[in-house]
Amino acid sequence: MSNNFPSPLGGPVPDDVLLLEPPLIRVIAQVQFAPIYKIGEPTSISNFQESIRKVYPFITQGMQIDMTQGLGGPMGNIVQQVVWRFESLDRKSAASLSSTTLTLDSQVYAGHAEFLGRWSFLLEEFDKSFENSLVTRIGMRYINQFKISSETDTAKIISQKYLNPFLGEFPQNVSHSVSETALKVEEGDMLLRLMRLPANATFDPVAVPPSKELSIVLDIDVSLTNQVPFSLPLANKQFEGFAGRARTFFQLVVASEFIESKRAN
Q1: Going by DSSP bridges, is the β-strand pair 134-148/214-229 parallel, antiparallel, or unpaired?
Q2: What pLDDT digit, counting tens, does each position of 48-99 carry?
Q3: Cβ burial, residue 215 (10 Å; 0-12/13-18/19+)
Q4: Is residue 134 part of a domain?
Q5: Given this model, what pLDDT does residue 68 score?
Q6: Which stretch of DSSP H or E encloses residue 252?
Q7: Residue 48 maps to a domain
Q8: What's the total number of domains in the chain?
Q9: Residue 144's beta-bridge partner residues?
Q10: pLDDT at 7 over 60
Q11: Dihedral (CA of 19, 94, 64, 36) sign
Q12: Cα-flanking dihedrals φ and ψ of residue 236, to 5°?
């Protein structure tokens, strides 16, 4: 990667910090690849299922609808594809496999090394079952949700530099606040969302369940779009980079006083 990215967009990343009562509610890692249509057939995924069955014993079959925009109007092709979902014993982690994606969606996170180890295991078994795949996009998403008891608590969690000025000056008068920033970073692209939501509200009902209280959501998505043959060593290195860059921005945006007060290591 180029070294032309100033910190925090590039360069060294901080060490992992484990927090007591961590705000992280979901981590999602995904590889997108050129279509492998045989994945839709039960007989074709049997080896993959068997290799991960001890960790992900529950399997369900669903359908996924992909819509693409056509040149002549807002609606192009509508494609249905089978999605296999493999859930862990505690139902808190799930691997999903379709003809174009492999995804790990986890509500359990014991640090980046542990999570990346679980993800690397899935990537390795995928590569054994479906050799010579062509990767088109990879990404990781970290969703943090801070529950707060009053409007003024926002400034205790988010660094003043990145706080919406209206939240800092008129917190009781702001019903909700949403910011979204797309950035180029050393590892690829980042989409950074920071929002304060009222009770019982969400911007993504699948990934972020509504909170009964006021909440702050910090959603960090790091990705790279590039067509390359799948390589496990390269993928492990890239996802390690994604985790580090996301960690950099978490520690940048969240108030240092909050991190220190919740530090577990």
Answers
A1: antiparallel
A2: 999 999 999 999 999 877 654 444 444 456 678 899 999 999 999 999 999 9
A3: buried
A4: yes
A5: 47
A6: helix 232-253
A7: yes
A8: 1
A9: 24, 218
A10: yes
A11: positive
A12: -60, -40
With respect to residue 59, please indicate whether it lies within any of the assigned structural domains: yes
Q: Tell me which DSSP letter residue 8 carries.
A: T
Distances from the Cα of 169 to the Cαs of 38, 160, 180, 216, in angstroms? 57, 11, 21, 17
Residue 160 lies in a domain: yes
Helix 112-129 with 232-253: angle, nearest 10 deg: 150
Distances (CA, A) of 1 to 5, 37, 47, 157, 188: 10, 33, 36, 32, 9
- Mean pLDDT score, 173-186: 88
Instruction: Compute the mean pLDDT over every residue in the chain, rounded to the nearest whole number.
Output: 90
* One-character DSSP codes across 38-52: GGGSGGGSHHHHHHH
221 forms beta bridges with 141, 191
- DSSP run (H or E) holding 25: strand 24-33
Tokens encoding 123: 């990537």
> Alpha-carbon distance 11 to 84, whole Å?
38
Boundaries of domain holding 144:
24-262
Q: What digits encode the pLDDT tens for the residues 248-258? A: 999 999 999 99
Q: Any alpha helices (H) in 38-101, and if so which ranges?
A: 46-52
Share of the chain above pLDDT 90, in %: 68
Kindly tell me if the per-residue pLDDT of 170 is higher than 70.
no
